[in-house]
């Protein structure tokens, strides 16, 4: 579940919060408990270094594994394991961050929520 941080323009958020369905583990160690919130922020160009946008748009697990430690708080370490649903939430937020405002507006007009 994504809990968006309130702002005047919800479509231009630079941070979002995700409530974890399962724990984030590194080996046998629990790094972040299930039910905890993790803040993910919009990556800058430096944080995308060594990655391709196409891989991130395809939710490539290895690319997300490199990017998430750079943009999450508390930090999700490279090599950590998590529930697949949580990985999808993080990947979905990354994809949304990478979409231009015009594309988001076109999607909203094509699929109104009311």
UniProtKB/TrEMBL annotation:
Protein name: Phage tail assembly protein
Source species: Sphingomonas abaci
Upper taxonomic lineage: Bacteria, Pseudomonadati, Pseudomonadota, Alphaproteobacteria, Sphingomonadales
């Amino acid at each position: 579940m994504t809990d968006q941080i309130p702002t005047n323009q919800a479509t231009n958020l630079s941070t979002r919060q995700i409530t974890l369905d399962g724990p984030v583990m590194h080996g046998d160690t629990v790094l972040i408990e299930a039910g905890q919130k993790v803040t993910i922020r919009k990556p800058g160009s430096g944080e995308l270094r060594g990655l391709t946008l196409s891989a991130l748009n395809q939710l490539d697990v290895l690319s997300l594994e490199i990017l998430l430690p750079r943009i999450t708080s508390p930090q999700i370490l490279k090599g950590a394991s998590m529930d697949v649903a949580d990985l999808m939430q993080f990947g979905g937020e990354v994809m949304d961050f990478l979409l231009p405002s015009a594309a988001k507006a076109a999607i909203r007009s094509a699929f109104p929520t009311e």
